[in-house]
Amino acid sequence: MIEIAEKNILWLKFTTTGKQAHASMPHKGNNAFVAGSALVVALRDLYKKFNKKDKLFKENPFSSFEPTKKEANVPNVNTIPGQDVFYMDSRVLPCYDNNKVMAEVKRIVKTIEKKYKVTVKVEILISEGSVPTSEKEDIVKLTEKAVREVYHNKPTVQGIGGGTVAAYLRNAGLPAVVFSKLDETMHQPNEYSSIKNTMGDAKVFVHVAMNLK
After folding, report:
1. Tens digit of each residue's pLDDT (9 = 90 or more) over 115-162
2. Neighbouring-strand partners of residue 13
3. Cα angle vertex 101, ends 98, 103, to 5°?
4. How many domains does the chain have?
5. Same domain (yes/no): 42, 115
6. Do 13 and 112 lie in a common domain?
7. Rounded CA gap, 115 and 164, in Å?
8. DSSP readout, 147-175?
């Protein structure tokens, strides 16, 4: 696979604040965990709002909005938490602007604040995006040719949900291409890098360089 496009990355931190109390007297508190959980569910509506499909991203052609990390709230079972924190990892198709996603996130947050009488702080940890490289660019054609010559297969040109340094190059107006042969162990407990693959990739880069005009 030759990567010519990436989804926008939007990482958010949500801090819901209610009122801490003893669990035997819930009427004296305001459970931030309950409100935060309701917010997690409400944010699933982002899938409906931003539901376009892009065939360039073959493995997952849609935007994704997934809650991930959850911080501990209270250390004991008999306390209603007054604060709750969770994070969301969003991978947004390039056809959408992250600012529009944020506007919808804020709208959803306001509905939760009003319904559960809590406050929610939304922090942007990362917000990045880039314009895809055209399949017609010379560097794309040269990379395809080099991969065929080295690995004797037919590479596909597509986009990915992950982020690479190519995004910065594309934002600077440079038609960047990303390629490497991987064993698909990314972010797994046994993630590793293959020396054999690295040697093959070096040959690909040499072939590209030799065919440059």
Report:
1. 999 999 999 999 999 899 999 999 999 999 999 999 999 999 999 998
2. 87, 123
3. 110
4. 2
5. yes
6. yes
7. 40
8. HHHHH-S---EEEESS--THHHHHHTT--
How many other β-carbons are positioned within 10 Å of the β-carbon of residue 12?
Answer: 21
Q: Give the 3-state secondary structure of residue 207.
A: helix
Q: Are residues 164 and 124 in the same domain?
A: no
Whether residue 80 contacts residue 23, with contact meaning beta carbons closer than 8 Å, is answered with: yes
The verdict on 61 and 157 lying in the same domain is no
For residues 120 and 113, the answer to whether their CB atoms sit within 8 Å is yes
Hunting for tokens 């314009």 — which residue is that? 131
Answer whether residue 2 is part of any domain: no
**String of DSSP letters for 66-112:** EEEEE----SSTTEE-SEEEEEEEEEE-TTS-HHHHHHHHHHHHHHH
- Sort 72 into a burial class: Cβ within 10 Å, 0-12 / 13-18 / 19+: exposed
Round to whole Å and give the CA distance between 124 and 139: 34
Residue type at 146 in one-letter notation:
A
For residue 51, the enclosing domain spans 8-128
For residues 213 and 210, give the distance between their C-alpha atoms in angstroms, rounded to a whole number.
8
Look at residue 186 in the predicted model and tell me its pLDDT.
82
Residues 180 and 119 in one domain: no
Q: How many CB atoms lie within 10 A of CB 135?
A: 14
Q: Report yes or no: 39 and 108 within 8 Å, Cβ to Cβ.
A: yes
